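Hey, I'm writing a tutorial for new members on how sequence and structure tokens pair up, and I'd like a real worked example in the thread rather than a made-up one. If someone can provide the structure for the chain below, I'll link this post from the tutorial.
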Amino acid sequence: MAIQVIRTYVGSIQNHQQVQSGLDSLGKSASKIWNVARWTADRIWDETGEIPNEGLLKTYMKNQSCWKDLNAQSSQKVIEELSDAFQSWFDLRHKYDEANPPGYRKHGDTRPRSTVTFKPDGFKHDPNNNRVRLSKGSKLKDNWSDFLLCEYHTRPDVDLSEVSKVQNVRAVWTGNEWELHFVCKVKTETEDSGGDEVAGIDLGIKNIATVAFPDEYILYPGNAVKQDKHYFTRAEYDTGGENGPSEKSEWARRKLGNRETHFYHVLAETIIRECVKQNVGTLAVSWPEKVRESDWGKTGNKKLHTWAFDRIYQYLDYKGEERGVEVLKENEWDTSRTCSGCGDDTKSNRVERGLYACSSCELVGNADCNGAENMRQEITPSPHGEDRSNGCVAQPSVHLFDRESGMFNTREQVVS
């Protein structure tokens, strides 16, 4: 069965020396549009007490000279990004007071190179010759037909002539050079069904994912993500200055973002591959409805805001679709305190962070495993005789993320 999925492919620019100055101009123009729009929002905020919405900002910015530095749709994309940044700030501000609104893009008195997005009318793609033509804004053109012609190279296994559609192209400054990101619709074949078995997954903060498979439980800790956040966040704040983030600060943000993206992709890929291996065709994912609206205290709210449950679900969903594994959202309400063995939902059963001890049937085990099994039973109310004894729930397999290989590996267990 053929399906369509969204993929982003990275292309290195082969004629970088010829197009760098043009891309630099576009990147700095994108920062200028952001800064002018940010300044405008600040003035309106001071006068009315409200941040102007995306439509109002676009209407105002179209009369500013910097708007024509980019293709019209590229300029609009900058405003959309600013609007999203303000929305994220509102969400943070609702939780705790010290959240800062989006700032200006500057290094002292200079503007950094921002990502420039080219929508369909801003680029012309020639995949057979690995070339893409990027539009300049009217103010940066020497004549009406002026444009940037980039020659690119992708991974050997990527052929952009075979994709269904290139939705947009992004010029991204990596800190050393420009590269192109092609956001594409891709047709891919998938199996009609991954199998007849059912698995359940409990998403968390310490253990990013705990999966209840038909014959075993597997924990996927988030230690690597936590360590990266600590290291790169410290690097970011240690190098910030009065004039905005430094080059090293921006490097730290990019590095952290790239590592998190890789971690979550590998996590989802590993889980789906294990589903196929264990003949699982349905994966029930715990979905914390309205969790963002809950108040878990200052520290808890910060952790919840960075909890990537929606991102993990999206990765599981499309990777599962490719391999015939149906991924379903299931409300996780009460699954953490309900016994997967007998259904007792006494609150005190959840003894502490990682321990579950049922006062009725005396099941003792890992609390996350118990929650994952409850998610599995949302789809399979009556398990088919699998071993759900104390030993099975209490001694799950642990797969740790290995930085050197960039993959999850089974942690060796010491047998006494």
